[in-house]
């Protein structure tokens, strides 16, 4: 870094500040910020980043920045946001900054039409462009797609999801056909039951969802399905001061018609324990305010007035939710059932307990003041009031010692235990009601035969607060999994782009977060399993669980004690009160006090029996199939269930093409045009965008279309050079500049630069006129040389080509000759061999002739026989030569000839043998006769 150079230095609130280097030390650099001349900031080298030349110039794709670092990334997103361009790409990832105001025409039907069928990058970045890409990829590659929308609470995930669904429905739906209508209409319903006001977002989704839109073989919408994850249950019973419970509770209190209100015994929000701990004001628009009676308002509301939000209105939204239910086919009776259950949760929360000092067994009782609530709650849940009392204040246990083993006995509960049981019941009822509503929505969406689907995942991003509990642990674990998936996919995409552009570069390596995932999920020592193990103990203790986590994972790089936290508030925690995990996005300290409780979904047996016997059909239905074993410790692991759900989700994601949208919340005030740099930087870090930059650094992070580069520099060069076509123009420049081949690569449509090299190139281009004149001279020289080389190369190539053609010609003939010969041989070889063998047989005829010549008897007949056979051989030779007999036939023929010949030869030999025998006999006879004569007739001397 040179003195006087423009750089970014870290800043506490802005993220980075722009300044100029005034002094370079051994360990740090002194920078004079532009907005505070005369002052200096000292920064370490590693955290000081070069700035782009133009302060106000932005890029639609961060990868096209000259200097690709976290400061320029943050600044590019800022410039665009301030110009009302809320979307920016980083390669194929879309960064979406929440504008916090309705942007005119940004999501209109006209805009939808504009984006249809357009490749990414053709039009300005947009959530529609991602949706369109997903649809195109699905159609072309015939593979289902997913769009992962992530970001912190209030970053705009749900809104983005809605726009994606709108785009898909409007573009490929059957003109507001039932499927897309139902999917879009399910929003108000799911939001009423699953959204709440938090400090970060007035309409915060407290559950994750994966919405699948299914398409038929014509790529038109034909069905849909919604899966949901991790509804935040603790909110049903407690909220912090400025937050609220789920919207439906307030909507029911504010908007229920009088008769329903009376029937469900509803009052102002501050009359209910489960909602009065938090904010009890309604969201009310001016129009609705007039119709709201005072008896529905809380004291806080009466004092402070209503909450304001452009889209929320509890009175109006009650009706919207009601209508949405009707559209989903939920009839009057079912609707009443649902509202009854919601009200029952409120009344259940008002049942309070006190220790019963008269009870010798140390049990508790329901307070006098809560008797009415008990009656109302029992009535609404559809159970007997006394049975509800019994089930809340005692629980059924199975004896294991004394008495008859296995006998059920009632154990009275202490006030605190009864309260936990009541809360567990309320949470179970509400969360099962939410499951039921999602089920009804799914049932209401028609489903044809699906070819592929596009799934949109709207799930909370990486979270860390002052106090982080089991919810943050689960969501951060989920984000670790998604981050691993993200890295793999992004790298893969980058690699595919390199291949498509023909860059021929080596594979990029990256640090995996598998070790962090293993810390949470490994069998035996994983935190989830240790938690389940602890929960199954007779008396589970958070301290013991925490100690186990540390003991079983000693020296694990990702795990540490809270005292090692950077935050003072965490350092106060004892080793057995929490643990610190080094996540990919930063270290998070978890308080483990409530882990065991939050990980257990089970109700104690008496409560389950109670609700299963309910006269309220819906309550009965909600608890259908819930298993209980009286006396046994009831445990149903939330963590294990979530892990299983996540496994299914990850399998789904892995089998689809993936697209990523990273939503960014620009400020905590939830207002438009306010860019809080430091917080945005941390969100970009959590979204893995900085790690994407790190990955890119290994490859060719800066890339520009030839035409863009050409337009950028053509004005600097004389006409004879600017007349060149963009690709040649770029090549000429690079070669003339003598840039190292390793620093850039020419693709088919773009030129790619190694980190920082684009900037270097730019610097040379824009240096002083003298240098430019020399450069132009060099470019011209290079052009002449290259054209001369090209001409030479052309001539040489023609000669080479001619020789090649000649050579090939001769080779073709040779190949033909060889092939023909081979074909002939293959066709004639059996014939040839058989002929040779038959001629061999003819040779043996001489032997037959010899035998015949020795015969004295039947010589003529034998001679004829030999002649005939010779004739047969000749005939067969002719036949073999003239016909197209197969090898098998030829073999058969030859074999029959050999057999024939052998037989004849044997016959002749036999005859000859017989002749010889006869002659021998004759000779012996003659000797005998002579001998006889000699004996009898020769005179004795
Ligand atoms: N594209 C947008 N245009 C206008 N306003 C928006 C846009 N995106 C988000 N908002 C505003 O920001 C608010 C919060 O957005 P949203 O509910 O989508 O956030 P979220 O990330 O889903 O939060 P949570 O995780 O808490 O559910 C919305 O109610 C809306 O007012």
TrEMBL record:
Annotated GO molecular function terms are: actin filament binding; ATP binding; microfilament motor activity
Q: Name the SMART domains on file.
A: MYSc
Q: Which residues form the Myosin N-terminal SH3-like domain?
A: 2-53
Record's protein name: Myosin motor domain-containing protein
Region feature (Actin-binding) = 646-668
Mention any one GO cellular component term assigned to this protein in its UniProt record.
Answer: myosin complex
Q: Record keywords: ATP-binding included? A: yes
This protein's UniProt keywords: Actin-binding, ATP-binding, Coiled coil, Motor protein, Myosin, Nucleotide-binding
- Binding residues for ATP: 151-158
Instruction: List the CDD domains.
Output: CBD_MYO6-like, MYSc_Myo6
User: Which family is annotated?
Assistant: Belongs to the TRAFAC class myosin-kinesin ATPase superfamily. Myosin family.
User: For the Myosin motor domain, which residue ranges apply?
Assistant: 57-766
InterPro entries, per database record: Kinesin_motor_dom_sf, MYO6_lever, Myosin_head_motor_dom-like, Myosin_S1_N, MYSc_Myo6, P-loop_NTPase, SH3_Myosin
Question: Which residue spans adopt a coiled-coil conformation according to this UniProt entry?
Answer: 898-930
A Gene Ontology annotation in the biological process aspect, one of them, is: actin filament-based movement
């Amino acid at each position: 870094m040179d003195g006087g150079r423009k750089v970014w230095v870290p800043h506490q609130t802005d993220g980075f500040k722009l300044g100029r280097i005034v002094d370079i030390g051994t360990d740090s650099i002194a920078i004079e910020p532009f907005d505070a001349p005369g002052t200096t900031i000292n920064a370490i080298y590693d955290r000081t980043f070069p700035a782009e030349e133009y302060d106000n110039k932005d890029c639609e794709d961060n990868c096209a920045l000259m200097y690709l670092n976290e400061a320029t990334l943050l600044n590019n997103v800022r410039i665009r946001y301030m110009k009302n361009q809320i979307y920016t790409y980083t390669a194929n990832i879309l960064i979406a900054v929440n504008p916090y105001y309705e942007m005119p025409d940004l999501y209109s039907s006209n805009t939808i039409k504009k984006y249809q069928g357009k490749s990414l990058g053709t039009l300005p970045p947009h959530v529609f462009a991602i949706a369109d890409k997903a649809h195109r990829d699905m159609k072309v590659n015939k593979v289902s797609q997913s769009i992962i929308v992530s970001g912190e609470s209030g970053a705009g995930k749900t809104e983005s999801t809605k726009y994606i669904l709108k785009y898909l429905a409007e573009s490929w739906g059957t003109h507001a056909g039932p499927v897309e209508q139902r999917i879009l209409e399910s929003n108000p319903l799911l939001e009423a039951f699953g959204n709440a006001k938090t400090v970060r977002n007035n309409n915060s989704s407290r559950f994750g969802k994966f919405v699948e839109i299914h398409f038929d073989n014509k790529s038109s919408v034909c069905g849909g399905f919604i899966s949901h994850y991790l509804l935040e249950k603790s909110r049903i019973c407690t909220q912090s001061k400025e937050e609220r419970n789920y919207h439906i509770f307030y909507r029911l209190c504010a908007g229920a018609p009088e008769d329903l209100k009376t029937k469900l015994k509803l009052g102002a929000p501050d009359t209910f324990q489960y909602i009065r701990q938090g904010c009890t004001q309604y969201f009310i628009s001016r129009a609705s305010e007039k119709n709201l009676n005072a008896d529905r308002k809380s004291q806080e509301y009466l004092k402070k007035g209503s909450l304001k939000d452009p889209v929320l209105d509890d009175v109006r939204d009650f009706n919207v939710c009601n209508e949405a239910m009707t559209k989903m086919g939920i009839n009057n009776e079912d609707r009443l059932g649902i509202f009854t259950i919601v009200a029952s949760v409120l009344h259940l929360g008002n049942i309070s307990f006190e220790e019963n000092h008269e009870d010798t067994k140390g049990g508790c009782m329901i307070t006098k003041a809560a008797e009415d609530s008990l009656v109302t709650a029992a009535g609404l849940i559809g159970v007997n009031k006394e049975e509800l009392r019994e089930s809340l204040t005692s629980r059924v246990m199975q004896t294991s010692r004394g008495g008859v083993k296995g006998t059920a006995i009632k154990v009275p509960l202490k006030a605190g235990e009864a309260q936990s049981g009541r809360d567990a019941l309320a949470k179970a009822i509400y969360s099962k009601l939410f499951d039921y509503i999602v089920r009804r929505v799914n049932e209401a969406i028609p489903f044809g035969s699906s070819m592929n689907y596009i799934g949109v995942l709207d799930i909370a991003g990486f979270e860390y607060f002052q106090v982080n509990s089991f919810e943050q642990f689960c969501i951060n674990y989920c984000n670790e999994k998604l981050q691993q998936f993200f890295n793999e996919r992004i790298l893969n995409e980058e690699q595919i782009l390199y291949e498509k552009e023909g860059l021929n570069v080596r594979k990029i390596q990256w640090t995996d977060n598998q070790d962090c995932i293993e810390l949470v999920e490994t069998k035996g020592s994983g935190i989830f399993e240790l938690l389940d193990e602890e929960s199954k103990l007779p008396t589970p203790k958070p301290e013991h669980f925490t100690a186990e986590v540390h003991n079983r994972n000693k020296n694990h790089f990702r795990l540490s004690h809270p005292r090692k936290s950077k935050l003072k508030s965490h350092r106060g925690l004892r080793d057995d009160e929490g643990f610190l995990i080094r996540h990919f996005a930063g270290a998070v300290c978890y308080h483990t006090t409530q882990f065991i409780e939050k990980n257990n979904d089970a109700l104690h047996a008496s409560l389950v029996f109670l609700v299963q016997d309910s006269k309220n059909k819906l309550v009965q239905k909600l608890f259908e199939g819930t298993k209980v074993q009286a006396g046994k410790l009831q445990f149903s692991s939330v963590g294990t269930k979530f892990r299983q759900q996540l496994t299914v989700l990850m399998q789904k994601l892995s089998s689809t093409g993936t697209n990523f949208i990273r939503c960014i919340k620009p400020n905590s005030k939830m207002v438009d045009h306010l860019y809080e740099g430091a917080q945005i930087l941390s969100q970009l870090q959590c979204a893995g965008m900085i790690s994407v930059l790190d990955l890119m650094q290994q490859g060719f992070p800066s890339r520009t279309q030839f035409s863009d580069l050409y337009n950028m520099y053509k004005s600097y060069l004389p006409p004879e050079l600017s007349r060149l076509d963009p690709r040649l123009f770029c090549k000429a420049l690079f070669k003339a500049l003598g840039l190292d081949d390793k620093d850039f690569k020419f693709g088919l449509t773009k030129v790619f630069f190694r980190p920082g090299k684009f900037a270097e190139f730019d610097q040379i281009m824009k240096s002083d006129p003298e240098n430019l004149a020399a450069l132009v001279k060099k470019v011209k020289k290079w052009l002449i040389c290259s054209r001369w080389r090209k001409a030479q190369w052309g001539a040489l190539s023609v000669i080479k080509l001619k020789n090649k053609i000649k050579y090939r010609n001769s080779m073709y003939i040779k190949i033909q000759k060889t092939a023909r010969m081979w074909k002939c041989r293959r066709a004639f070889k059996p014939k040839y061999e058989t002929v040779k063998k038959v001629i061999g047989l003819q040779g043996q005829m001489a032997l037959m002739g010899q035998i015949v010549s020795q015969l004295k008897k039947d010589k003529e007949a034998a001679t004829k026989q030999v002649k005939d056979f010779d004739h047969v051989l000749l005939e067969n030779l002719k036949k073999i030569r003239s016909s197209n007999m197969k090898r098998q036939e030829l073999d058969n023929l030859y074999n029959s000839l050999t057999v024939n010949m052998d037989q004849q030869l044997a016959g002749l030999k036999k005859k000859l043998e017989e002749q010889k025998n006869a002659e021998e006999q004759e000779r012996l006879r003659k000797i005998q006769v002579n001998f006889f004569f000699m004996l009898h007739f020769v005179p004795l001397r």
